[in-house]
Structures are given as structure tokens and as C-alpha cells.
Amino acid sequence: MPSGRRHSRLAFSLVELLVVIAVIGVLLGLLLPAVQSAREAGRRSQCGSNLRQLGLAFHSYLDARRRFPAGYLADTASPARDPDTFDAAPGTGWGIAIAPFIEEAASTTAYDATAGVAASVNGELVARRLGVFLCPTSTGPREPFAAQDETGAVHASAARLGRTDYVANAGHEDPWDVAPRASWEGIANGPLFRNSRVRPADVTDGLSKTAFIGEHSQALSQKAWAGVVPGAWVQPTERYRALAGTVAEHGAAFVLSHSGPAANEAGVIHVPNDPASHCDQMFSEHPSGANVVVGDGSVRLVEAAIDRAAWAAFCSIAGE
Q1: Domain count of the fold of the chain
Q2: Rounded Cα distance, 144 and 130, in Å
Q3: In terms of residue numbers, what domain contains 92?
């Protein structure tokens, strides 16, 4: 047998190898977006599940107290109140209020409601990381953060706060940015604000047509599940600080958002994921929109392309 026929071919040619690599590259290019989309769908679903738990907790609180929780509590008549906002202790937020109804009863049992969020006696509790308050899509930090003043320096209280990616809807206005008033009644037209006591009958638009809670990713700015430190400011992350309009906000924005139109913003309406990226608007990293809890406890995905007037109507409780 001729020697040339004794040896079988043992290797690919360079052209064949390049073709195989190109085919693999094309397949990966087709597969990766589908995998990423599936993963994001799972994360969005988990976020929705978190919010459903919070929505159910709101209704459990309603059953027990005959009203919805306040956005946060403050003794606005206190001599120690913040002169710019009239915020004062306790600063207890809606997150602590509903904690007993999301299997976090220990968070309220141990909480000194008189001393408040900024008190050292509550320091360990308010700095806790609670998974139900965190959206898995959010790329923001997860560790507790130190409350800061307007300049970004550590606040005098030295309070450290556990993070959340969810905020409550105060309505059109941002009362924390107007002249200080002891009461926000008649200013805030959403379901949750400072010292609010909203009952279902007050929501004349209907519970199923009113936003109560929505997303605000920690990638944009600091948010705290426990409540508000009087005199502290919400600081944007370095990622968003350079954007026009992204500035620090008063402490109410640790737990609250507003939609606009507000008197001090010339009719601007902040739909979810609005690129204006204010620290006191709803903001999600889900590419398709933001998950929102409505007053009946259900969760809806609100698309970023929602009509602005419709979003504003969705954020008020009484036909505005």
C-alpha cells in the first residue's frame, strides 16, 4: 500500500477552525440576549413578588388600624425640629409600620418609637438589610449608608440606615421643598406623606387607580426602609450626580417620591425612569418600566412611555 494512504487526516485546517469559531460566535450572539432577557424577567418577577408582599402588608395594617400607614411620622411642633422642613423625631417610616405584617415583627418589637430612627438605641435595627425591600435588578449598593447633611458630610446623628429600592407616593407636590409647614394636609395629594392618615374612603379615584408604592433604585440615590433622619439629606450616587437636575433632596425623600406637576417645577411630570433622574422621583433599572403597587394591593408594571398626564392622575387620590 502506498505510504501516502497510511496516515489519516488528524487536524482541522486554519480555514475550518475559523469557520467553527465564527459559527460559535453567531450562536452566542443569538443566545446571550435571550438568556439576559430571561434573567431580567426573573429579576422583575422577584421585584414584583417583593412589592406584592408590601402591598399585602399595607392591607393587613389597614385591617388592624382602619387606615393606611403614614409615609413617616414627625413631631412637627418639637422645639428640636429641623427649621428648613419642620421634620423631627421619631421619623418612623412606612417600612417599620408594616414590618409586623411581613414577618419582621422583631423589627418593631425592638424599635424605640419615641427615640426614633436617628437614635443610637435603634441603630442596629434601622441599619438592617431586609431582602423584601431590595429589587434584584438594582445595581446600587446594598450595605447600610451613613446619613449625610446637605454638603455630603456625615450627619450629626451618625445614624446608619438600611437600604430600600422602594418608595411611597406622596402625590404631585414635593412638600419637603416648599416653605416649612407643620402640616402637609392640602399640599400632598398622594396616599402617603408626613403624618398622613389616609383611609380608603379618602381615595376617591379608587384604590385600583392610585399608585401607593413604586421603585427607586439605589443606583440613583439613597433610600432607607426604616424612615427619616430629621435634618439629613438624600444624596445622589456619583453615577448620577453629574446629570442636570440630580441634586440632594431633603430627608423626606428617603421614603417618599412625587410625580409632579409641582408648583416649584413649572409643570414637570416625572414618569417612572424619567431621565431627569431626580432623587425624589420613582426610578427603576428594569428596561421596560417600573413595578408599582396600587391601592388594592396588586402590582402593575408601569411602562416608562406612559402618558405623563395619565401618570400624574394615577399618583393623586382625588381626581387631580
Answers
A1: 1
A2: 11
A3: 16-314
